[in-house]
C-alpha cells in the first residue's frame, strides 16, 4: 500500500476509536474517564496517521526513510537489516505491542523531551504522507515538513499535558492500521512473527494502483472528517 493510504487509514482508525471507545480504553493503562478534548482529538488524528507509517521503517526506500533526510535513511537501513527485511518483524502484532509499550515507557521514564521528539517525528511523517508539503525530495518540501511538524509540536506543548495518556494507544493503533492495510495486499504480513504464517486477504492487487489514490484515500479522508465532526459536535 502507498504511504497516503496507510496515513489516512490510521487517521480514520483514530477517529473511529475516539468516537466509539471509552476514554479509559484510549488512555490505558492510565485509565482516565470522560471525553477527549477537541485539541486531543485533532492532534491524535495526525499522530495516528504518522504512526501508521512506522512499520515501513524496514523499507529503505519508503516515506519514513526519506522524512528526515540521511538520518532516517540510515536508521531505516539498520532496522531493515535487524528485522529481517521488508514485511518481517515490523509487520507483526509484536511490533504493535512494542511501539505502544515503547511510547508509554518513554513518556513515563524519559518524560517531556521524549514525548515532544516523538510528536515531531510522527507529525513530520503525517505531513509527508498526507501530501501536505510540496512533492519530491527538494529543500522546499523538506523545509515545509520541518516547519509544519515544529508548529504542531509547539501546539502540542502549549495545549496538551506533558504526558498525553492517549499517545501509546494512538501509536499502537496507527501501526495496527498499517498491518491491516498490508494484509489486504498480495504479499500479506507475518502478523505472528517470529512464526512463518503469512496472513493475507488480497483485495488490493498492487501497491500504487489508482484504486488507492482516487478511491480509498479520499474515502478514508472523508470518513475521518465525518467521524471527527460527529464526535466534536456531540461532545462539546
Ligand atoms: Zn508495510
TrEMBL record:
<keyword id="KW-0378">Hydrolase</keyword>
<dbReference type="Pfam" id="PF04307">
    <property type="entry name" value="YdjM"/>
</dbReference>
<keyword id="KW-0472">Membrane</keyword>
<feature type="transmembrane region" description="Helical">
    <location>
        <begin position="142"/>
        <end position="160"/>
    </location>
</feature>
<protein>
    <submittedName>
        <fullName>Metal-dependent hydrolase</fullName>
    </submittedName>
</protein>
<feature type="transmembrane region" description="Helical">
    <location>
        <begin position="110"/>
        <end position="130"/>
    </location>
</feature>
<dbReference type="InterPro" id="IPR007404">
    <property type="entry name" value="YdjM-like"/>
</dbReference>
<keyword id="KW-0812">Transmembrane</keyword>
<feature type="transmembrane region" description="Helical">
    <location>
        <begin position="12"/>
        <end position="31"/>
    </location>
</feature>
<dbReference type="GO" id="GO:0016787">
    <property type="term" value="F:hydrolase activity"/>
</dbReference>
<keyword id="KW-1133">Transmembrane helix</keyword>
<feature type="transmembrane region" description="Helical">
    <location>
        <begin position="214"/>
        <end position="232"/>
    </location>
</feature>
Amino acid at each position: 500500500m502507498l504511504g497516503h493510504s496507510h496515513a489516512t487509514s490510521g487517521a480514520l482508525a483514530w477517529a473511529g476509536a475516539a468516537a466509539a471507545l471509552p476514554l479509559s480504553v484510549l488512555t490505558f493503562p492510565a485509565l482516565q474517564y470522560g471525553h477527549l478534548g477537541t485539541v486531543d482529538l485533532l492532534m491524535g488524528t495526525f499522530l495516528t496517521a504518522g504512526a501508521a507509517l512506522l512499520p515501513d521503517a524496514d523499507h529503505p526506500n519508503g516515506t519514513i526513510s526519506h522524512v528526515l533526510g540521511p538520518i532516517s535513511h540510515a536508521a531505516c537501513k539498520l532496522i531493515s537489516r535487524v528485522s529481517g527485511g521488508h514485511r518481517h518483524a515490523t509487520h507483526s502484532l509484536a511490533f504493535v505491542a512494542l511501539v505502544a509499550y515503547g511510547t508509554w515507557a518513554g513518556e513515563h521514564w524519559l518524560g517531556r523531551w521524549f514525548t515532544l521528539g516523538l510528536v515531531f517525528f510522527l507529525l513530520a511523517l503525517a505531513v509527508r504522507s498526507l501530501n501536505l508539503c510540496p512533492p519530491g525530495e527538494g529543500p522546499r518540501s523538506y523545509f515545509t515538513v520541518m516547519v509544519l511538524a515544529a508548529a504542531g509540536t509547539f501546539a502540542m506543548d502549549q495545549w496538551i499535558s506533558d504526558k498525553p495518556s492517549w499517545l501509546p494507544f494512538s501509536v499502537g493503533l496507527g501501526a495496527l492500521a498499517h498491518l491491516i492495510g498490508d494484509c489486504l495486499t498480495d504479499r500479506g504480513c507475518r502478523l505472528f512473527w517470529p512464526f512463518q504464517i503469512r496472513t493475507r486477504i488480497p483485495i488490493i492487487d498492487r501497491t500504487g494502483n489508482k484504486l488507492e489514490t482516487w478511491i480509498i484515500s479520499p474515502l478514508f479522508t472523508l470518513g475521518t472528517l465525518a467521524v471527527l465532526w460527529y464526535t466534536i459536535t456531540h461532545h462539546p
